TrEMBL record:
It comes from Rhizophagus irregularis. Residues 102-129 form a coiled coil. One of its GO terms (molecular function) is hydrolase activity. It comes from the Eukaryota. PANTHER family: URIDINE KINASE. Keywords: Coiled coil, Hydrolase. CDD domains: NRK1. This is P-loop containing nucleoside triphosphate hydrolase protein.
Amino acid sequence: MVNKKNQIITIGISGASCTGKTTFASLLQKIFPNSTILHQDDFFKKKEQYPIDPITNLANGECPEALDFSSFINSLYNLRTSPTFIKSFKSKKNHLIDNIESDELNDLIKELNDQVQNILSNNNNNEKELNFVIVDGFLLYINSDVIKELDIKIFLEADYDTLKKRREFIYGKKIPDRNWVDPPNYFDQMVWPNYYKANNHIINRYVLDGENDDILKDLIVLKSGNLSILSKNIKNVVNIILDLIKVK
């Protein structure tokens, strides 16, 4: 439920590597004023603390055990409950965002921002300033404590071939500001198996171990795709957020 006292709305965006989560989050941040992004990637443990994959003998940064969930949940809780913390919060590092050059998308973002600003300014029930916390992470929906902190839950979905092609394009070569390059067969041996294992309850709709079906009953699954699909998804999510604002 929305935190009515503090006027904070949390929006989770999850999915496999290279589904465009961070780009999606950055576009929402441009549309909604007073918004900040919490990146789950900021909460990786030190590499020497990663479990070793028994098949590849590589440090496994694709599994839940590679993340400091306690610190992540603590930051999410603080953002959800404290507008003061939101104002001072900063991401720990720069995050890779697709710089999509599209006049059509830019026009859409401006149009949606105008729409949001107009609704917020005319929302008579909104006595306090609304804040938006956008949570970007590849493992958001495996932990009930995380799920319960999210008002809106989005999962970006793409098939194996699409994800493999994108991963190899993005992580198959050295690029500025990033040291990591995927070793040979990394997608097949590490990325895809760990993604499927962690998100099997979503892929097969939606039973989470130890929880009832209701915990993810409002999960919004969107296809990750081309620019046209991205524009459609952005409009859809903005309307969902605005509907939530209107009923507050």
